[in-house]
């Protein structure tokens, strides 16, 4: 186990107003893990980027915005007119609501960080209940859609927070 103060590590200037300190590296016997502390002066930033591995961000003091890379808007606010009045969003398929099967796919997708579900007004409460029952951690909002599909897409997009990429997908 390594015990140290991050201030004891050598500061490395990486950008104007940005200093990096490498607290844990492969040299410490951690070939698949690293811990770096970035110190940003007010008004400075790190360019938007991504990594093929998981990483955590902790703000030790001050405030900042971390952009979430990818989001999904699941649009299910239609009237199911082609289904003869059967609500396909909450209809069971193999004992599970069709909407739940769709959300499961994005919940289990490693490149999706947040999900917004857009439902018709009558399905809003049952949809929120479904999300609560299933405990999907990536669903950040369930909101009402608009009169047209494009209105529903805009409603969903407006609920995503700081996404770089967004997938729009039908709920059923």
Describe, in plain words, how this protein is organized in 3D.
This protein has 172 residues and is of the alpha/beta class. It folds into two domains: 1-66, Jelly Rolls, CATH 2.60.120; 68-170, Spore Coat Polysaccharide Biosynthesis Protein SpsA, Chain A (Alpha-Beta Complex), CATH 3.90.550.10. Helices cover 19% and strands 29% of the residues. It is built from three helices and nine strands; from the N terminus they run ββββββαβαβαβ. The chain has a four-stranded parallel β-sheet with strand order 8-7-4-9, sandwiched between helices. The chain has a three-stranded antiparallel β-sheet with strand order 1-2-3, with no helix packed on it. It has a two-stranded antiparallel ribbon with strand order 5-6. 20% of the residues are buried. Keywords: Nucleotidyltransferase, Transferase. InterPro entries: IspD/TarI, IspD/TarI_cytidylyltransf_bact, Nucleotide-diphossugar_trans, RmlC-like_jellyroll, RmlC_Cupin_sf. Pfam families: IspD. GO terms for molecular function: 2-C-methyl-D-erythritol 4-phosphate cytidylyltransferase activity.
């Amino acid at each position: 186990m390594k015990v140290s103060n991050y201030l004891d590590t050598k500061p490395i200037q990486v950008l104007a107003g940005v200093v990096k300190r490498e607290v844990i590296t492969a040299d410490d016997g951690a070939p698949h893990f690293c811990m770096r502390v970035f110190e940003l002066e007010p008004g400075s930033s790190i360019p938007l980027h991504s990594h093929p591995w998981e990483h955590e961000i902790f703000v030790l003091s001050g405030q900042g915005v971390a952009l979430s890379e990818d989001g999904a808007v699941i649009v299910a606010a239609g009237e199911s007119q082609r289904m003869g009045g059967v609500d396909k969003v909450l209809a069971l398929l193999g004992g599970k609501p069709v909407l739940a099967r769709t959300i499961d796919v994005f919940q289990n997708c490693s490149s999706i960080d947040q999900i917004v579900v857009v439902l018709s007004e009558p399905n809003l409460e049952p949809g929120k209940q479904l999300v609560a029952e299933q405990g999907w951690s990536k669903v950040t909002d369930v909101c009402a859609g608009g009169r047209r599909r494009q209105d529903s897409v805009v409603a969903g997009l407006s609920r995503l927070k700081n996404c770089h990429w967004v997938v729009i997908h039908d709920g059923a």
